[in-house]
Amino acid sequence: MGAAIGRRDVAQRADAMNDTSAAISKVVVERYRSMTPAERWLAASSLFETARQIVESSLPSGLTIEQRRLAVARRLYKNELPEVALIAHAEYLHFKQLLPNP
Questions:
Q1: Distance (Å, rounded) from C-alpha 71 to C-alpha 86?
Q2: 74-93: per-residue pLDDT in tens?
Q3: What is the rounded radius of gyration, in angstroms, for the C-alpha atoms of the chain?
Q4: Is 62 left (phi over 0), alpha (psi -120 to 50) or beta?
């Protein structure tokens, strides 16, 4: 499909950039394991939202909502999804607004 970077490649790059000691890594892993699924979901959601906001803040002003959505989607998912999916995501709200209300 659109994935140019495999999970193994990403994991190897992450390991190469890791400067965390084994002791701290163990503490972090134990903390994550002690979290409920809901707590892990909230933590991941918060991290994603922060990343999205960082991308949003780097975009030029004056973009339409669709252009902003496409730029964010490209930045976050370019190597994960085909371009047609990114465009569909960007246009989704506009398309939904055009549909008649039931």
A1: 9
A2: 999 988 899 999 999 998 87
A3: 18
A4: left
